[in-house]
TrEMBL record:
It comes from the Eukaryota. It is found in: Cell envelope. The keyword Signal applies. PANTHER family: RECEPTOR PROTEIN-TYROSINE KINASE, SPORULATION-SPECIFIC PROTEIN-RELATED. The keyword Transport does not apply. It comes from Salpingoeca rosetta (strain ATCC 50818 / BSB-021). Coiled coil: none annotated. This is Uncharacterized protein. Residues 1-25 form the signal peptide. SUPFAM superfamilies: L domain-like. Keywords: Glycoprotein, Signal.
Length: 417
């Protein structure tokens, strides 16, 4: 058996066979060592590369029996090329695809489009970053073992087709206005969407992510669909997103490993839904029209809670048991409207509680036994009972407030005592 090279459409297609074990020695052009293979690589008039084989032999490319695939589909658009050794040509025949078995590396090739032809899956990663892609056709690919890097291209739309699993997705620096993750299900690793023009996103069947980068987009609202767990931050603060967010739907999320940063937006209400724990900070400061916050099922906040410069009149910490940093509900410009605060189940605040410049007439510290300092100055309080509160810092109040069980008083200029 032998390989023939066929000249078709006046173009010579160069063939080198990469055999099963992909042994070091690459045969000369248009020749094969295999005894049982007869195949022809043809460049069809439409520009696609095909392997034609009439034999029962096998040609393996990255573990795939391409001849069998050819027989099944008639058009497995993948072929072997001579240079550099062990790199094959796949899909777009006019370009050399560097495919060394560890993944597809086709970055910085000025590609305007890319098609995967009839490749059924990639066990490793796909790197098409830094091209000029306006379209990509994943066609039949169902599984990508590694990440898909399409960053720094010109994509305005993306269709993940039949892909159901992938370990990371990089779409940063494209021209996307919307993203739909289609059939991708389960864990999607790191998703980077930064520097696009996104206004909508459909996470489809994705249930967890290690991180999501949203910066420099145009979201006015966002929902997280079926996502249950976010390993890192949810960061959509104004300077990062570039547009004021008016609504957020945490949907099915039960855990956020990092921060939830939504400061300087135009949110009027926030419902944390099913979120039970937040590893870092919760920061909703400078949402000037925010009138309601429902902490839902959150029991632990690893960092601080910042609700400064909002329009909240009351805050109820719901089921929160501990806060790793400060609780800040003061107003930075004019007097805040806060008239009631309910610490609920909080027993421990590993920072300070800052409620100054509000309209509080009374404060009940509830079950808090541990806090650094509490600052209540510039509130119309008449009395404060420190009961079981254990301060490692001090309490700051205005002159004339009657104090009970309060032993550690601040001496700074804001504090009368
Ligand atoms: C490839 O195979 C197809 C189907 O067997 C045939 O129609 C076509 O002519 C072949 N092309 C070449 C260049 O042999
Ligand atoms: C690629 O992954 C598929 C599905 O997980 C597996 O069946 C196949 O053996 C893998 N192929 C190689 C060459 O690793
Ligand atoms: C998905 O695969 C099926 C065949 O399994 C094919 O008919 C369909 O066109 C593919 N979808 C896309 C978007 O390529
Ligand atoms: C996402 O992409 C941006 C811009 O390229 C980069 O600065 C950021 O580090 C990336 N995020 C992650 C988590 O890799
Ligand atoms: C939560 O996930 C279910 C499917 O598991 C979906 O039907 C529902 O719409 C999701 N909730 C939200 C708020 O997106
Ligand atoms: C929180 O406090 C309420 C009463 O204010 C109580 O019914 C509930 O069991 C407490 N939850 C936890 C987790 O301690």
């Amino acid at each position: 058996m032998q390989w023939r090279c066929s000249k078709n459409a006046a173009l010579v297609v160069v063939v080198v066979v990469m055999m099963m074990a992909m042994v070091a020695a690459i045969p000369p052009l248009c020749m094969a060592q295999a005894d049982d293979i007869e195949g022809v690589v043809v460049l069809e008039d439409d520009g696609s590369l095909h392997i034609n084989s009439s034999s029962v032999g096998k040609v393996y490319i990255d573990g795939e029996d391409v001849v069998a695939e050819l027989q099944a589909t008639r058009k497995f658009i993948a072929a072997l090329t001579s240079t550099p050794a062990q790199h094959i040509q796949l899909a777009n025949p006019e370009v050399t695809v560097l495919f060394d078995g560890s993944g597809l590396v086709m970055s910085d090739k000025k590609l305007a489009s890319f098609s995967f032809g009839f490749v059924p899956f990639f066990n490793n990663s796909i790197n098409l970053a830094n091209n000029q892609l306006t379209s990509i056709d994943f066609n039949q690919i169902t599984h990508v073992g590694g990440g898909i890097d399409l960053s720094h291209n010109h994509l305005t739309v993306i269709d993940f087709g039949n892909i159901t699993s992938v370990s990371s997705i990089y779409l940063n620096y494209n021209d996307l206005t919307s993203v739909n993750f289609g059939q991708i299900a389960g864990d999607a690793g790191d998703i980077n969407l930064s520097h696009n023009d996104l206004t909508t996103i459909d996470f489809g069947h994705i249930t967890s992510v290690r991180s999501i980068s949203f910066d420099s987009n145009k979201f006015t609202s966002i929902g997280f669909g079926q996502i249950i767990s976010v390993g890192g931050d949810i960061d959509l603060h104004y300077d990062y997103n570039n547009v004021h967010l008016t609504s957020v739907d945490f949907g099915n999320i039960t855990r956020v490993g990092g921060d939830i940063l939504l400061f300087t937006n135009d949110l009027t209400s926030v419902d944390f839904g099913k979120i039970a724990s937040v590893g870092g900070d919760i920061d909703f400061r400078n949402n000037y029209h925010l009138t309601s916050v429902d902490f839902g099922q959150i029991t632990n906040v690893g960092g601080k809670i910042r609700l400064t410069s909002t329009d909240l009149t009351s805050v109820d910490f719901g089921q929160i048991l501990s806060v790793g940093g400060d609780i800040e509900v003061y107003h930075t410009y004019t007097s805040n409207n806060l008239i009631s605060i309910d610490f609920g189940n909080i027993t421990r605040v590993d920072g300070s509680i800052k409620l100054y410049d509000n309209d509080l007439t009374s404060v009940d510290f509830g079950q808090i036994t541990h806090v650094i300092s509490i600052d209540l100055h510039n509130n119309p309080l008449t009395s404060v009972d420190c009961a079981n509160v254990g301060f490692s810092g001090c309490l700051c109040v205005d002159a004339g407030v009657t104090l009970t069980n309060c032993r550690r008083l601040c001496t700074s200029s804001n504090c009368a005592h």
